[in-house]
Amino acid sequence: MLHVRGDIDLVTAPQFARAVQAALAGDHPALIDLTQVDFMDGRGLRILEDASRDTPLTVRPSRLVRRLLEVVRLERISIVE
Q: Which of 5, 11, 38, 47 counts the most CB atoms within 10 A of its CB?
């Protein structure tokens, strides 16, 4: 499981992308805990979208991230509580 906190933006997106790729490198489906993410821009959404193309991806979103995923309808990403 990957735990992410703070902001995912221009400055932190490269680090987030590397962490997501590392989490997906394992043999089991990745769970990405975004419950402590306070802000995420389009870069973070793109990273999640790109990652979900190759492997099952499940996120536990903060309220903000949940709303973003609902608005852009990233249906390949599973959301858990």
A: 47
